[in-house]
Design goal:
The chain is mostly helical. Helices cover about 60% and strands about 0% of the residues. It has five helices and no strands. Helix 3 (about 55-70) crosses helix 5 (about 80-90) and helix 4 runs antiparallel to helix 5. The N and C termini lie far apart (about 70 Å).
């Protein structure tokens, strides 16, 4: 029984080593353009969400107080802004 198991594992190893995994269809290969793209092209791919209307200072302070209760939200608030952090952790802005 041990011999059969060893023989089976060896045959699977040979099959894995000899199979041709490098051949992919031409459509599946990534583009060779690089990591960076032009600003015009990037803006069509990734659209930034913006608030529908300008928020007052009182409304922004209210969002900030809610977000400060969550440490992860507070850290995101420092890097991405209060609106992005609040919507990421608590959903759409209520006003």
């Amino acid at each position: 029984m041990k011999t059969l198991a060893i023989l089976l594992l060896c045959s699977l190893a040979v099959i894995c080593l000899t199979s041709d995994t490098g051949s992919q269809p031409a459509g599946d290969q990534p583009a060779q353009e690089g990591l960076f793209v032009e600003r015009e092209h990037a803006s069509t791919v990734v659209r930034q969400k913006r608030a529908a209307a300008e928020l007052s200072l009182h409304q922004l302070e209210s969002l900030r107080e809610v977000c400060e209760a969550n440490l992860a939200c507070e850290n995101m608030m420092d890097t991405d802004g209060i609106i992005a952090a609040y919507t990421a952790y608590y959903g759409p802005i209520p006003y």
